[in-house]
Write a structure and sequence with these properties.
CATH architecture of the largest domain: 3-Layer(aba) Sandwich
Largest sheet: 7 strands, mixed
CATH topology of the largest domain: Aspartate Aminotransferase, domain 2
Strand order of the largest sheet: 4-12-11-10-7-5-6
Strand content: 15-25%
Shape: globular
Number of helices: 14
Distance between the termini: 20 Å
């Protein structure tokens, strides 16, 4: 694909230097459909980024778009804070019937604001309010958001430094596999437990532990089910609330609707955002056990927590993709397809590829040289495929195709990836 440099002058003149994705993908995108984006010069791109996981059902999904257009056409309520609306009632009823009850989950649902970091902030605040404690344990490689509370439980030094103030009341522990000698061994929380029981350890009794079952921004680090079960048991023994951040890996990204289902655990609190609206509209949820619902009216609020168009598309997504088990089966099958290709790439490039890993439709290829990952993503873009890097050093090429990607589209994208690896050094 020959890509001419588009006119970027207005972005460079007016937009902050904080912008990032546009630097790796120097195109001006104009429209999108399904697994494809189209720029204003007529180039087509396969999208294995999917809005950082916010577009699990693809761009402008026709079923969700029809529901949204019908709602807007009849002048349905757009903004309502936390007032009761028919759109919210339909969503809550559907979420209960399609997601919660079949999984025997009795969570209360809170709408904390439009973004994932809003959900994390609500979860941290609630855990501290319930327990009367301040410390929250997080893990190496974690990413939980860009607001101050979420940054305090995020591992990335670059992101943390942007806060400009001390980030307090958080303690970091090693994630599963963080130490090389952990791999292949039974989960061992003896060190963590010793710190909790030793009055000389210097760690205050935590209010909660927050964890991603698969770390997306951290480099597609996958926690083993037995490790997650061990963590849940540790939390129960020491009266710590277990928070699962399912913002990127929830809504079917790893196969089941919730990423923690495979491990058979039941978190006390769950955060959801990104693909919960189904259409890329801002929306987030904070779910928690009913006995934790100690909020006073208005104690945590936000102007845009009642995004009714998002309720409409979310409801349509639940009934379209989660009323039966087909989406989960397809996602796992597509994941097998990715794994087979990445295995071949790793075998062909043993000196360059450190490892590959993933679950469902979240995968990463780790390179020994972080710059190699950047070059692979750049070359893939030149060939019409959007990929991003992740990991502490940007050493992982990350694949997040839509759950609705077809076998042929997946094959095409994986072929471009394999070719990009061959064509870079």
């Amino acid at each position: 694909m020959t890509i001419t440099m588009p006119d970027q002058s207005v972005f460079e003149a007016l937009e902050s230097e904080v912008r990032s994705y546009c630097r790796g993908w120097p195109a001006v995108f104009d429209h999108a459909r399904g697994s494809h984006l189209y720029d204003e010069d007529g180039h087509t791109y396969l999208d294995f980024f999917a809005g950082a996981g916010a577009l699990n059902y693809g761009h402008n999904n026709p079923v969700l778009k029809r529901a949204l257009l019908d709602y807007l056409q009849r002048d349905g309520v757009t903004h309502a804070l936390d007032m009761s609306t028919s759109a919210k009632r339909d969503f809550l009823t559907s979420f209960r019937d399609v997601v919660l009850q079949p999984r025997d989950l009795a969570y209360k649902v809170m709408f904390p604001g439009p973004t994932g970091t809003n959900s994390v902030e609500a979860a941290l605040k609630l855990a501290r309010k319930v327990t009367g404690r301040e410390t929250v344990v997080s893990f190496t490689g974690a990413f939980h958001g860009m607001s101050l509370g979420a940054l305090a439980v995020t591992g990335n030094a670059f992101k943390r430094a942007g806060a400009g103030v001390p980030l307090t009341h958080g303690t970091t522990m090693p994630y599963d596999g963080y130490l090389d000698d952990d791999r292949g061994r039974a989960p061992d929380f003896r060190w963590f437990e010793r710190l909790l029981t030793d009055p000389g350890s210097g760690i205050d009794q935590p209010a909660a532990v927050i964890v991603e079952t698969v770390q997306g921004e951290g480099g597609i680090n996958v926690a083993r089910p037995e490790w997650l079960r061990g963590l849940e048991a540790l939390c129960r023994r020491h009266d710590m609330l277990l928070i699962v951040d399912d913002i990127q890996m929830g809504c079917g990204r790893t196969g089941p609707f919730f990423s923690f289902e495979e491990a058979g655990i039941t978190p006390d609190i769950v955060t959801l955002s990104k693909s919960i609206s189904g259409y890329g509209l801002p929306m987030s949820l904070c779910l928690f056990r009913p006995e934790l619902d100690v909020w006073g009216p208005g104690e945590h609020n936000g102007t845009f927590r009642g995004n009714n168009p998002a309720f409409v598309t979310a409801t349509a997504a639940l009934w379209t993709y989660w009323a039966d088990g087909q989406t989960e089966k397809q996602t796992l099958s597509r994941g097998d397809q990715i794994e087979a290709t990445l295995s071949a790439v790793a075998t062909e490039h043993t000196a360059d590829v450190a490892r590959y890993r993933g679950r469902g439709l979240a995968w990463g290829v780790e390179f020994h040289d972080p710059q190699r990952a950047t070059r692979v993503c750049r070359r893939a873009f030149e060939r019409g495929l959007l990929l991003e890097t992740s990991g502490a050093h940007g050493e992982v090429v990350k694949l997040l195709p839509p759950l609705t990607v077809t076998e042929d589209e997946l094959d095409e994208g994986l072929s471009i990836l394999a070719r990009a690896v061959r064509e870079t050094r």
